[in-house]
């Protein structure tokens, strides 16, 4: 009997050992599959994987990872293309402007490539929107949205929002004398959201002056879209659905649907009214594109506004030159008009904006493309089915194109010192047919607010700022390079 028990015990422990071994083997294989460089990509220069994995694990922002790991590797091996492990997948990153142009211009061989549709952000924007579609479906929407952005830029809206913003600055308790220390990153977010509300939907979100419910819901929802667990395992949205987050998302979508209905009854001079004129656009296309315009235009513009004001706070000489130009062109107090806010009318302010958009470009990477067939990219053979990314931050910091790439120097855009020799090297809005349709609109928005601020205030960075030794961007899983906790001290000009 005893010997029978001991045989059973022995069998049981070998079974446990066997199962454990099998699980360990399967896990190792899964890990190997996740991390191993696929054989068909081994000919491409690949950035060592472990520092990249650690960088993601430590939630390093894109700019730090690109400067610390990608650019030094690419420079050392003189490569304009490097293979990088990104969230479980190897992707070709392009750092050379000409090669980036080749990909961006060629929609047939490089259509857009998308991550799992379970991702919360993609559930919000739906599948019928300009960013995620390809082919004829994209062409129809893109033509319409590009046309919509030909309506005159609403400079009067930007101006009145700027005045609301001044009011908020002045309401902020003075730190000393006439100084007002403001959470500029937050205020820039609010400004950008109100500007989108008016220009896309003719709707007053009122995020600048109030604790708007819609703005709060939207910001809370956006935070949930970046939950690392659900980003790593999007399937969890199905297994453990986050009901409160879905309710939030549906509230926002209902609000957007209400805006659409209101615009149908009473059209205005906004993008939504423009799109509603097209009878071929389906309900889904309308809804998905309106949510997409909010997402695409909000954090990007807010990031650009944050950076512009930051660089001018740090570089007082540029701030002074920009102010002198604004006062000379716009006069001391009259509301600015569209012609006076053009890039030609304000060359120095425009150069500051271009330089801010280059140095801390709000979108660090373009949306990935996928090679539809095997192609040659410069000297590199790219097999069919390879994910390819234009690394916008990398192109903007490529020292073979930009001298002293990390230095903020607006003059480089005025003297043509190092930009007119390499075409397509300034790409904050990316290039080719899928470039940002709002690039003109966004730059007018930046010029309007910057000009109004320059006339009204002088500003500095607080001595104890976390950005005192260089900008600190927040980690973003959605390729955004946007600073956090950016306080600015504004002092009203006399
Ligand atoms: C400074 C502000 C902005 C920056 C830096 C910016 C940057 C970009 C970039 C880099 C792309 C290309 C992405 C890619 O190729 O994968 C893009 C596309 C796009 N942007 Fe912007 N953007 C800004 C403002 C806006 C605004 C205000 C809107 C709308 C209100 C907008 C709407 C779009 C749309 C709809 C696309 C998709 C185009 C397509 O796929 O065909 N953007 N943007």
Automatic annotation (TrEMBL):
Gene3D superfamilies: Cytochrome P450 (1.10.630.10). Its cofactor is heme. Heme binds at residue 436. GO terms for cellular component: membrane. Pfam families: p450 (PF00067). Keywords: Heme, Iron, Membrane, Metal-binding, Monooxygenase, Oxidoreductase, Transmembrane, Transmembrane helix. It is found in: Membrane. Pathway: Secondary metabolite biosynthesis; terpenoid biosynthesis. The keyword Metal-binding applies. It comes from the Eukaryota. GO terms for molecular function: heme binding; iron ion binding; monooxygenase activity; oxidoreductase activity, acting on paired donors, with incorporation or reduction of molecular oxygen. PANTHER family: CYTOCHROME P450 (PTHR24305), CYTOCHROME P450 12A4, MITOCHONDRIAL-RELATED (PTHR24305:SF166). Belongs to the cytochrome P450 family. This is Cytochrome P450. It comes from Serpula lacrymans var. lacrymans (strain S7.3). The lineage of its organism: Eukaryota, Fungi, Dikarya, Basidiomycota, Agaricomycotina.
